[in-house]
Amino acid sequence: MKQPAPFPSRDEILAFIAREHAAAEGGPRKIEKREIARAFGIKGGEAKIKLKALLKELEIEGAVTKSRAGLSKKGELPAVVLCDILSRDRDGELIATPAEWDEELGVAPKILVTLPRRSTKNPAPAPGVGDRALVKVAPHRETGGPAYIGRVIKLLSRAQKRILGVFREDPRSRGGRIVPVDKKQRDRELFVTEADRGEARDGDLVSVETLSRARLGLPQARVRERLGSMNSEKAISLIAINTHGIPDLFRPETLEAAEQAKPARMQAEGFAREDWRSLPLLTIDPPDAKDHDDAVFAQPDDAPDNPEGFVVTVAIADVSYYVRPGAPLDREALDRGNSVYFPDRVVPMLPERISNDLCSLRQGEDRPALACRMRLGKDGHKLDHTFHRVMMRSAAKLSYQQAQDAIDGRPDDATRPLLESALKPLWRAYAAAKLSREKRSPLDLDLPERKILLNPDGTVDRVFVPPRLDAHKLIEEFMILANVAAAETLEAQKSHLIYRAHDEPSVEKLSALSEFLATIGIKLAKGQVLKPKQFNDILSRVRGTEHENVVNEIVLRTQAQAEYVAENYGHFGLHLRRYAHFTSPIRRYADLIVHRALVRALDLGPGGLPEMGREHLAEIAAKISASERRAMAAERETTDRLIATYLAEQIGASFAGRIAGVTRAGLFVKLDDTGADGFVPAATLGNDYFHFEEAAHALVGSRTGETFQLGDAVEVKLVEAAPFAGALRFEMLSHGKGQKGRALSVKKGKRPPAPKSRRRK
Description:
By secondary structure, the protein is an alpha+beta fold. The longest helix has about 35 residues, at about 615-645.
């Protein structure tokens, strides 16, 4: 009788996961319980239950991470990684780090990059410092060096030649030095001669290009552009653009291609568009929007199978007609990945000739579009949908506030003629769509966004949180419906696509959430699988209580980050099984891919997606996910720097805010008026020693029991501002709240016991 295979140890399972990822070709391999069972010959119900329990233990301990993409060893890199090449070692070898890395895992591992052999068959340029590349990695066996060794599969973007820095004049030579603004390059100053300084003055922010690299002394540079004083707000967004390597100057061939583009016609290249120019589609956008890539219309459905239902139409600018695969416009759009929005400027994905002209759905002008027509039942459930390649003509350009005012009984000259024919049907259709949304119960977090208004001279006028109107929610819901329809259509056509995916929270984060909720009397069953509805129930239980803000904040931190993927694993936050981005191809490359896939799958004319395997789409998805995170970081840092500059003149002033973060070192406080974040060192909190209670997200005085907890309303005084670091330091003016039990014992004259610092398990 054949003996059963011995059950694997924990170390053997971890080694197997790491080995399989390292050996995978073309991308990380999906490893799940069945692959492990097959590899170790685990059969029978009892053995499989034992394996499941062991994997759950490893996940809870943090030894492995689990997502819809499978299991991976905690902190280990997959076989193929998107990397930034940052430096060279003493031997001149290139050193890279992952473009995306969870800081909770510690310092990102270093990768020793081996150079490809140059030949006539491989004429591609060799990678260099500052480049971004897809790298196939494996553990590096040599001790004392980088943890991984890697081979470049594909060079994605070349290093930026332009460097931003502050010019420091040398009075003796009349030349000077350039001090780079990028923190990573602060120790790499450049030398500028008098002849190469141009109009630069001491303290100016300048753009320079490097010249020769001398064997001795500093590398030489030439000032290309004087951008003004470091005190100007214009400098702040330029710093973010440079620091994050965001391409902000279009290549000549890209601009030339954009200028040569001709307006789309009803018939071209053997294909005829549907004529929808009489349909009164509306664009509803922010008042300062320069490009309009989506338009909407709704009307009652007169089909007998849908009583009291609606037909909702979402029309999206047909960018795929102008931006063809592999052409200059396409190559640069992929490099950029998305548009980046700063208070003083936009760095667009496409040149203005395309984004603000040919593809902008301007009022009263013919524009090509890809339209989704959806039938909704009276309960908001989508019955069916169709896609069409059309020529449309926007009936009106409205702002969110304009549309809302009209519905609320305050129409103006633009909205009054549209109220009965267009706006009210839209709102009635949205009322139905809301019923379906509420039944689906997506995650419902209250996350106000701050907006910065600038004066004409570029200085900050004010910072505010704009109101969240039904007009915003209407457009958002119809865009979600169209995005789902796009994903469903492409899946039905068995077409590859790029999904927008959002993973469920990790076991580790759910465990931390459960520990915190227990401190405020809300119990979660251990190991309970939470859906968005359960999160919403938690949020509704604390709404209007003192715990509302802290619970919203911690539920948000529990969530994973959304990403673009070629293998679908659903969208947890929206509670959708399939979801793709279709509605903004002017500003997101993912949407352009989906448009092309629809054009090809439905035979809608030229500009379709070329033959492309899932592996190739996975590479594109990884790249644009990284571009999105790059843009988010640059936008956030610019906002922080602008607000720090704005507040630098108010040193000594007091502000109301809420505790937005708690660490052993102190408290992060977010101001109510501006949303600015600043730090209160723990050492400055009164005359007590404060312990960090991790599960409660609080600092607690060991002698008094005085407690400062995440979400608490506080008053602080601004004591220091560092504008170009975006940093603020506060002094706490409020007293902490008395902790239950401890505060009572203090009133009775008893010294409370010092709380133990808890570690997350």
